[in-house]
Amino acid sequence: MVTYDSGANAPEAPQPGFLRRLLFHTGHKAIGLQYLWLALFSVFIGMITSLVMRIHLVWPGAPMPLFSGFGNMPERYAALTLLHGSLMVFVVLTAAPQAGLGSYLLPIQIGARELAFPTLNMLAFWATVASVLGITAAFFLQPEAGITLWAACVALFCAASLASALNFSVTTIDLRAKGMTLPRLPITVWAWFLNAILGMLIFSILLAACVYLLTDRILGTHFFSAAGFLSGMPQSSRQPGFPAVWHRLFWFFAQAQVYVAMLPCFGITTHLLSTFSRKPVWAHRAVVLALCGVGLFGFCVWGQHMFASGMNPYSGLVFSLLAASLGLPASILVLSWFGTLWNAKIRLTTAMLFALGFVSLFLTGGLSGLILARHDLTAAVNDDFITGHFHLVMGVAATFAMLGALFFWFPKMLGRRLDERLGKIHFWLTFAGVYCVFMPMHWLGLISHSRISPGTPLAAIAAGSFLRYFTTVATLVTIAAQVLFLINFVGTLLRRKKAAQENPWRAATLEWSLPSPPALENFAAGEPTVYRGAYEFSAPHFEEDFVPQHLPPAASELRAQSQTTRGASVPRTTLPAETG
Amino acid sequence: MPGIREIQEIEIIIEDIGGGGGNEPPAGGDEGDGDKRRRPGPPSSRRYYIAITLGIVSIFMFFMALTSAFLVRRTANDWVPVHLPMVIWLNTVILLASSATLELARRRLAIADLDGFRTFWRATTALGIFFLAGQLVVWHQLAKQGIYVAVNPASSFFYIFTAAHGLHIVGGVAALLYVLFRAFEKTSISRALAAEITSYYWHFMDGLWLFLLALLYPGK
Questions:
Q1: Is there a single domain that holds both residue B11 and residue B114?
Q2: Which end of chain A is more exposed for a tag (fewer CB within 10 A), N or C?
Q3: In whole angstroms, what is the distance from residue A392 CA to residue A465 CA?
Q4: What pLDDT shows up at residue A503?
């Protein structure tokens, strides 16, 4: 049935004894951090599951803690894939960049004291926690019950995301500070806002799908069991039984998440690139339009695939991912990134490195996506290729954007800076590592198919097995490199010394005008007034190479403006009326 | 203040997730009709208008998603339409009447006739509950004919649609009760705005029901 309003009674996560104060905290910053903690927890669980899967692929006989005790192998493996996928996609890629960073930063960046509905935000968070616990628990149940629990938890997650999206939209529309007009919004806020709008549409539809799915499973209806649905499945998962169901579920939901996950990452990357290039975002307006385009195309294409073409998961994912939805807007974004970087005084901080890493991974993943967008070529590759593509462009790239954001905003959130040297070592190891993991996976996808053709079957098989081995070792090394991050993270947290500056990166958006970490009410001294855009770097007439958004126009600036009548298109001193 | 706000926002949740009429206006804004000015100190009322608008869009998408599956599935060969019991027409009339009484109540409120407002608002709430009861009767009658949820696709859709709509009506009744019993004098909430926001949701549910009914009506 419709379980989606059970978010109201969700708080069941940690023991009430500890952190009781935090349990009912409605402050947007506290909740944002809680989302990020949840994501950090999930990302490590997710990495462990991926490790288990890789090891199992290479050494199938090796005893595995998660395999041994729970029934037969194929089901366990499929369930493990689902666990890995759902934790990574739902928590790490969807909740963390949107609800986590968004909860924390969106109100501050628009000059608001709080989100529009703080309690709603808290309930959304605990509903998310409950759904994550349920998804994890589903792995340990028998398949029949597990799938039902999984679907119910996804419904709950959809409800939480809907609440969060509603909250973000209203906040962005209504609570902007005086002078924070739409053109002056930071690109990050644009991304969160557009993503919230998109999320309200997508998660409503997912919720409806969950309702059908759950009634199928609980009440014995036949919405999804029609033969047409299964026949649209890819070869690999067409075998009857539970493994197919697990597979199907994951892709069914994952393809919707692609757009929802990538949008905030675009915003973060643009933001970081501009800040560390000390240049305004190149073609600012085009970037905003491109973000709108990603949202619009993404929604249309996904919706069309979901409900018009018989819900073929793979074709939906593959075609819509790049061919239609991300093609044109993504090109605009990439152009803008390079335009921003062009001729810039780039500061290679760790945050910047991760942002550049995102660009690199996004481009690489996009290239393989071009191949996948061709229907005839898609037939020539197998799951390995798709897995490689999907992880490179979505999973890893988005994680890089997240890490960049973490390094960037860590001083603001927690009052101290992560160690740059350790961070850079971590970056390079991870960067090299993910390429070593996912590039051979592309090869594998091509090789295993050529095995069928009458070429050199034995050589291909041998190469394939070597590549699998290589991939697994690279996975091990990459995951081991994450220990560096953990050391950096925990070590910095344990360190007493607080970051002295409130604006270590010399960035222009509003959050950097506050102490680190900001006070409970953000702008306690009164709501700020915004006089300029978010990316005024290296502007003339100023001593500093950045101009904070809340800085009133200086006399010299006004003079310069009146002299150059060309600049009349930028009426900086006027405070345009709110647009709603 | 914090306690009060929490209660309000819990109420909002009921609305936009389970059902909906967001209804928490800030201090002032007693002229419920369209006070969209931004206020410096307390939260502005505009957020509630925006929230209910977006919430309605979201709920609309939810039902459109349900509907699209219905439209696709209806073309299959095994489709056996459900013949609607007569009670459903009575329910429809009840729901339409509740919208009318809701508007009458708001009109009373506009001329500061609080007692008249309460009377009509109670009538609206009662009609809403009658509608829900009537829907249960419909289910009961169908069950007596042996038409259960999983009997055939058409019956599945019928039960899902009515259940989803009914749950949203439950949320609406909760919002109605909230406006009825909340002591607005002690809070920063304006009754007029709460009533207005609730009315948007309720009328939307009303229209949605007509749409669903048209969809489910098998014709002759």
A1: no
A2: C
A3: 21
A4: 87
Answer whether B153 sits within 8 Å of A223, measured CB to CB: yes
CB contact under 8 A, B62 and A208: yes
- Answer yes or no: do B80 and B18 share one domain: no
What count of Cα atoms within 13 Å lies in the side-chain half-sphere of residue B98?
31
pLDDT at A380: 56
The pLDDT tens digits for A73-87 are 667 777 888 888 888
Q: What is the CATH number of the domain that holds B170?
A: 1.20.120.80
Same domain, B160 and B179: yes
Tell the residue number behind the tokens 């969209």, with chain if given. Answer: B36
- Structural contact between residues A204 and A282, judged by C-beta atoms closer than 8 angstroms: no
Q: How far is CA A368 from CA A175, A361, A363, in A?
A: 42, 11, 9
Q: Whole-model pTM?
A: 0.83
B95 and B14 belong to one structural domain: no
The answer on B199 and B101 residing in a single domain is yes
Residue A374 confidence (pLDDT) above 50: yes
**In A, what residues contact B, Cβ < 8 A?**
1-2, 4-5, 7-8, 26, 116-120, 123, 159, 162-163, 166, 169-171, 173-175, 200-201, 204-205, 207-209, 211-212, 215, 219-223, 226, 307, 527, 578, 580
Token couple for B30: 């007693």
Range of the domain at B146: 45-219
Q: What sections of A224-349 are H helices per DSSP? A: 227-231, 242-277, 284-307, 313-318, 327-341
How close is the nearest chain B Cα to the Cα of A310, in Å? 10
Q: How far is A339 from chain B (nearest CA, A)?
A: 36
Q: Is B93 found in the same domain as B31?
A: no
Which among A163, A215, A226 has CB closest to B16? A163
Residue B97 is predicted with a pLDDT of 96
Inter-chain touch A119–B6, beta carbons under 8 Å:
yes
How far apart, in whole angstroms, are the C-alpha atoms of residue B2 and residue A24? Answer: 12
pLDDT per position as a tens digit, A451-505: 444 444 445 555 567 777 888 888 889 989 999 999 999 999 888 666 557 888 9
Amino acid symbol at A369: G
Beta bridge partners of A178: A529
C-alpha neighbours within 13 Å on the C-beta side of residue B202:
32
Domain count for chain B, please give it: 2
B108 and B189 in a single domain? The answer is: yes
Across the A:B interface, residue pairs with CB atoms under 8 Å apart total 127
Which residues does B113 contact at the CB level (< 8 Å), separation at least 6? none
CB contact (8 A) between residue A221 and residue B149: yes
Q: How much is the pLDDT for A168?
A: 96
Whether residue B30 is found in the same domain as residue B113: no
